# Entry
Amino acid sequence: MSVLVVGSIALDTVKTPLHEHADLLGGSASYAAVAASFFSPVKLVGVVGTDFPAEHLAFLQGRNIDLTGLQHAEGKTFRWSGEYMLDMNTRETRSVDLNVFEHFTPTLPASFAATPFVLLANIAPSLQGHVLDQMSRAQFVIADTMDLWINIARPDLEALLKRVDMLILNDGEARQLTGEHNLISAGHHIRAMGPRYVALKKGEHGCLLFGPDGEFFSCAAFPLENLHDPTGAGDTFAGGLAGYLAAHTTGPITFAQLKHAVVNGSVLASFNVEAFSLERLRTLQKEDIQHRYEAFRLLSQFELSR
Ligand code: AMP
# Structure
């Protein structure tokens, strides 16, 4: 089954303590779509400007990502720039140029409306809701968000939470959204706001998954020393998770399947941070994913039943 991915497509400038690279392929939807494409067919909805390099379009197409829903607008592509501190975890946004993203309204081609799996990658919650308005029978809807929307669009986000099956967010965002300092309380609190499942990311410390009936799973992060650019780790996690679910779901989603999906999302994210932009995902092979999944399983000492 395929996944619909909606979000930002960007040209990023990223500075780390050792390197700086400009105009890299980035954006929440780029990372998520490419990650999902390792498992299932992907339909992408987003916007680029006239300056968007043809080589990036060719790369996305080469990953079997359907670009029928990609809008080409007059003007420049969305640009974002960020700088990482020495810990490679703390990040400061240096600039945001919305450009064609400012007037973006996601419009789904008719052939996308019945896509069973939907990943609403990070964009304004009102736009995420607009995507759902156009869907006919989504089986499982996942939304990502960020601190900005909790700050400036909380009512829209709260309305969206009542329409999604799963919310993905990081620890800081979960605390900000709920006012709870304890992350377990925050996870339960967010479930009470609407989504049946919550994936709460803790960066280098892994991820917590909350489900109905008190179901809970704590997933470690793969221990990495070779960290070059954390940008898009969250989007890659979400894309890998959504793609895995779409590829392996035959009936109703179970918590056991979601655990596998969370581990696969974590595996994809761990590869993505090994190089700038989406460079590592360009060369990544299915066998690499399987090997790291196995290493992950052994190191976490968990057995997942299907
Ligand atoms: P992450 O590292 O998961 O926070 O995602 C980083 C990506 O998000 C970068 O590639 C940016 O282009 C993109 N991004 C940054 N700010 C926004 C925003 N306000 N809306 C959508 N995408 C954004």
